[in-house]
Amino acid sequence: MNTLTLDRYRRSGLRSRQSRILWGLTLALVAALLAGASSGALGISPWVIFSGELDPMAVQAWWQLRLPRLLLGVLVGAMLAGSGAAMQGLFRNPLADPTLLGLASGAGLFVALWIVVGQEMALPQAGASLYGQFVAGFLGALAVCLTVFAIARRQGGSSGAVMTLLLAGLAINTLAGAGGGILAFIASDEQLRQISLWGMGTLTGALWRTVGLALVLVPLGLWWLWRSAGELDLLQLGESTAHAAGLDTPRLKRRIIIATSLGVGISVALTGVIGFLGLLVPHCLRLWLGPGHRLLIPASMLGGALLLVIADTLARILAMPAEIPVGLLTSLLGGPYFLYLLIRRSAIC
């Protein structure tokens, strides 16, 4: 077997392995959706929905509550994990994450500001009270992303850039937390409850009118990220090398910043802060699949959707009839894993 034939054989085997991985994640997601559709306080199987044997009120509840909740879990999980993979590639930092870098906190602060202040000035008949929250989340995530990006640009490729980014994220999270605390102090009881539940991350607010907006905007952000996969691979060689190869680096960065801010802002506005999903999923898949973003980004999208659907299903059944905020479960999973990474890196060094 000559070298050319061997190279073709290896490439064919790699494509076959990648296809198996993507199909495996897709089938696992379908199985998780079927399990989630059948679990909860109303133990309604999707197979029985079309049989006509159930009470119409129960069927209506399944269509209006459980189905949009599952769809929102898929969209938000895919967006958070996909944006995490893109951010790690953009900053060339395997620990980059929308939550760690303060994107979610910035979006959260702006949404809390909207809940306490903006809704009082909104015109309900104009729909401002509903969609203003999405605009606030997007603007908050965009402002933080531009700030962190400016800090990373000043650092360039220095050895302290990673630590500076993490410290910047810590500072932004602290400032956003302080701002959120002030808003919680002046909020009414109802507003305080909205901020508290929303800050823990939950899918209970999934309605068709909000999920419909996510169905339009989140896939747009996911498409932008997937489209950037090949350019992110080239960026890993260094900005100067990528520029010499013809990559328009500023355009790539702008595209990822806008896509990430759009997706994270909408996700945070709809579900609150769901932590560690953007770090845990792409980081684990990167160790398994390698650094190639052509496979890593779509695999992260599927893995993020899978993990959030499973976590939300557990949140609905572990404490029935009550529900555990899904953000607490993802933090319980991601927090120990992040500590493990830090301990492992310290042991290696």
Keywords:
349 residues, mainly alpha, 14 helices, globular
Description:
The protein has helices spanning 3-38, 46-49, 56-91, 103-121, 128-155, 161-186, 189-200, 208-227, 229-235, 239-244, 249-271, 277-289, 293-317, 326-348. The chain has 349 residues and is mostly helical. The longest helix has 36 residues, at 3-38. It is globular, with a radius of gyration of 21 Å. The N and C termini lie far apart (43 Å).
Topology:
Elements: H1 3-38, H2 46-49, H3 56-91, H4 103-121, H5 128-155, H6 161-186, H7 189-200, H8 208-227, H9 229-235, H10 239-244, H11 249-271, H12 277-289, H13 293-317, H14 326-348
Helix pairs in contact: 1-13, 3-8, 3-11, 3-12, 3-13, 4-5, 4-6, 4-7, 4-11, 5-6, 5-11, 8-11, 9-13, 12-13
Strand content: under 5%
Compressed to H and E, one letter per element, the order equals HHHHHHHHHHHHHH
Rg from C-alpha positions? Answer: 21 Å
> Residue share in helices?
over 70%
Tertiary shape? globular
How far apart the termini lie comes to 43 Å
Structural class: mainly alpha
What is the count of DSSP helices, taking H or I runs of 4+ residues?
14
What is the total tally of β strands? 0
Largest sheet: none
Question: What low-confidence regions span 5 or more consecutive residues with pLDDT below 50?
Answer: none
The residue-averaged pLDDT reads 80
